[in-house]
Amino acid sequence: MKLLPDLIDEFLEYLEIERNCSKLTIRDYRHYLEVFNDWFSKNSSGQSIKNLDLQTVRKYRVYLSNKIDKKGSTLKRITQNYYVIALRSFLRYLIKNDIKTLEPSKIDLPKAESRSLKFLDRDQIDRLVISIDTSEPEGKRNRAILELLFSTGLRVSELVSLNRDKINLDRREFGVIGKGGRARVVFISDRAAQWLSEYFKTREDIYDPLFIRYSGKEIPENRGEKMRLTARSIERIVKKYVRVARLPVDATVHTLRHSFATDLLTNGADLRSVQEMLGHKNISTTQIYTHVTNKQLRDVHEAFHSGNK
Hints:
hpI Integrase, Chain A
């Protein structure tokens, strides 16, 4: 039988080729499974993966619950879940390929801590975007970034990969390839289109990337690919204006994605349409928004609760 590291490598190749997973997903799975491989090799008394049992998995989960992260803290429950999910996916792959091991369905996921959903309401979005000084090209770029994020609900990885030639301001829509290689169409609001137009007027270069940096040395090679803003840069931009606007929510790029979905649902959009616009594979993922956006329940409460009379 093949060694565990070799089986892990084959699984990661399967994720890349057969499942078309993103490089980020593969990187995370590699990390989670390398941690398991290191622990298993030290604690399984030379046993192979075919001898994995629930007792060994329980010991591994105790190890995860006491594992210290880079910040010196124990892993959060949801982070422990990621390690276990990766292990279950790996075991499912092994069984699919006729390699005897523990049935992954026998491994229950630990109950995750409940997390409140962070989003900005329309007034907070307005405070955020008007806090940007748009007198300079960089400010126009930053306003266009924030307006486009709220208009489309794009993930940061989807935003930074955009090129100028993909944006059609006449049609006010464009296609993106999201998680798992799933394609979808996103739409540009009137306000986002206005600020993209203002930003385009400042661009006299021939670089491909939609959003480019203004600091550092200019590197025109390869159609300006090295001028492309990174995901980290986008996160810093959002954080900067959250501070400037003095918002009560510690908002991130993903908070704007939540705000996009919440805004649509609050104003009457159906869940299935929002699922499509977010690029969620399963509607159950989109349903996390319904507890804060169910307009029908709000109307019932306002109509019938005695405290509203």
